[in-house]
Amino acid sequence: MMPGGAISNRFPRIRGRWLAALVAIGLIAAVACGGDSDSPGAVAGRDFSAGLTLAEDSDLPPARPTAAPVLGAQGLIVNKNGPELTGNQQWFNSEVTSIGQLTSEGEVVLVDFWTYTCINCIRTLPFLLDWDAKYGDRGLTILGVHAPEFDFEKLAKNVQAAIDRYGIKYPVIQDNEMRTWDAFANRFWPGKYLLNTDGKVIYSHFGEGEYIDTERQIRRALEAAGHDISDIPIGTDEGPDRDPLAAGQTRELYGGYGRNFSYGGLYAGQAEYYDAPDAEVLYVDNLPHRNGQWYVQGAWKNTREAIVHTRETAEPVDYLVFKYLARSVNVVIDPQSPGAEFDVIIEVDGRPLKPEDAGEDIEFDDEGRSFIHVDRAKEYRVIEQQKSAEHEISFQSASAILCHLDQAKYQVSALGIQKDGTLYPPETTRRKLKLDPSLGVYCPEGRHWVSVLTELTPVAEIVFPVLHGPFREDGTVQGTLEVLNIPYVGAGVWGSAVGMNKVTSKKILLQEGLPILPFLSLTRNEWEDDAKGCVQRVTEELSYPVFVKPANLGSSIGISRSATGEDLLEHVKTALRYDDQTIIEQGIEAREIEVSVLGNSDPKVSVAGEIIPSREFYSYEAKYLDEESQLLIPAPLSREEMGRAQELALGTFRALQLEGMARIDLLMDRGTGQFWVSEPNTIPGFTEISMYPKLWEASG
Predict the structure, then answer these.
(1) pTM
(2) pLDDT digits over 215-224, tens only?
(3) Could you tell me if 221 and 194 are in contact, meaning their C-beta atoms sit under 8 angstroms apart?
(4) In what order do the strands lie in the sheet with 201-206?
């Protein structure tokens, strides 16, 4: 799990948008991959996502065998002291070998059991790739044993596509009959086993996490084998923290009857599913939904591996629905028909996903509906409440910028960055950005954007970071570009960091004599220690209504208007979903005025514009999901009022030491006409409805 999102108890609904006849849903995953914790034989009480370590003393160099080695059918040495690769179908990235052969040649072997639809396996891959790069020529051989969970994962072409997609260079072996899996008595994806040069298993680990300890065990084994790794630093990334509420999260839910049982109860919530195997049934979703079960509406067929939709409908009336408790939701879908492609609508609580909650495979159509485009059998990432809550808006802005760049003057390459920092596949980047086929997309898939930019440093003349929100717009990316000595568009590290934090920026603006409405800030610790005391403080120092916002976020995400202390209790919780600090501002009856600023040492200001929100205030929904909000450009202001707005925008830009560009948001009291500085935006939106480009268009 990735930190930064709220654990939700919600009802996602998966509807076919243009439903094809054979849509097979095999697995809905909101938990770690691997044997179900309720299944027979599972080890009770162990948290395999946190890891299990079994180690022997390997400080001394291993003794070499004195007996003649045992040779297998292909003339390879067979491991006598531990498990061996058995009955493997096909090898990738390597000639056929054996553990015994490798260890007899002085290699330390790390066996990783994985499958390409397991999200936990996928999240482990960057660490395996790092270890392979660091120690691959220092005595470590990683063997990826692909043990499939579904029949389509047995196809060599699908495994090869996954190997290419994730940039795996080490040997991978197909274990379609699970014979190597059984030889290791393995039960989980991912499962890692470290063997020393005697062929003994000296360490094992299951699930995600404990990467530093695993690397430490690898280093000990290499040093014991006489390999010099003194010049290679150990990694410092332990991976994402495990949420303390994760133990109560929804289990994996299987669609096929071959796995539709566990000690925790059946997966299908409707009795008709169990009347007969391979039966097509017209289901009616009329039961209360229980956590840990799924339900369907419409025509579906139960098969051994999947629940299969069996009819085409003009409208998306058939669906699969389940209640869940988790940060992320992933679903395995197989189109079944060769070449079939279709869209599947995804809803939560009967509404489209919010962009900040969208998994990396979610797209949005012109009507605001959230959907996934299914074009192959794979795991689709549907919901991911992570660090960047403004991911989709960044793509919308980047798409607009690319459409208006002079392609004859600039040679442009696009890097589509996923929420975990790695790059999207080229075709995904093109689709999300709606790119012209002639435009270059630099996407060494699966690589982290920092490592890619390091390679591009000699040739990249300038970077335009169209990245909205924390970990993107707050100086993080800008600092990286500074270290790499790559010029970039927009504010520097200081201006970006200060501009993102509403509390810090307001304190600076107050010191500089700019008009700021009364406000308070609350941290997560303060709120958790004494929420009622915090409400009392707000009640005493401000007057209702007040506006509650995450301190570090844009695009109007997480903003609420609190009219009472009871409202405030709920709205602070909402803001703390997105940040560890909130700002609570005095509410007034105000007009919302915005001014664009462009330049460095001698910045220029645009005419002011006014927003007439379709809702009570300019929320995320009013900004992006409906078309009723109006932009008045130029704003209906007197000459003096226009001049005052521009003066405040310029003063804010200079006080916060901003550069390049910014949009300055102001409030104008409807009663007195007084202006107040609301906040800056250092990488303003460039979508079709964004104020920043429209103001400059009107200014000439």
Answers:
(1) 0.50
(2) 999 999 999 9
(3) yes
(4) 91-92, 172-174, 140-146, 108-114, 191-195, 201-206
